[in-house]
Amino acid sequence: MRNKINQILSSNLHALLWREERWYVNECIELQLASQGKTKPEALKNLEEAIELYLEDEKVVPPKGYSDIELHNLSDMHSYA
Fold first, then answer.
1. Total tally of structural domains belonging to the chain
2. CATH number of the domain where residue 41 is located
3. Domain of 44?
């Protein structure tokens, strides 16, 4: 089981990180897991722990990696029409 967790953690997972008032919030895109912390390192550490706990479930299928990830401002969507 530990090998499976290490394999997934060493794969190409991505996290979004942003600030909400006094907290840093993050989300693992591939696993759709979120966490938070008072500092960026704390938030990322907490997300890693959340991922490890999630992956302890033997039914979890390793995520397929995404490529060419882009961040778009949705308030600019009218320019895509």
1. 1
2. 3.30.160.250
3. 2-57
Q: Which residues have C-beta within 8 Å of that of residue 30, sequence separation ≥ 6?
A: 13, 14, 63, 64, 65, 66
Interval 16-72: pLDDT, tens: 999 999 999 999 988 889 999 999 999 999 999 998 888 887 676 666 777 777 877
Q: Coil, strand or helix: which one is 16?
A: strand
| Token pair of 33 as six digits | 């897991």
In a domain, 66, yes or no: no
Look at residues 44, 42, 3 and name the one whose alpha carbon lies nearest to residue 27.
44
pTM higher than 0.70: yes
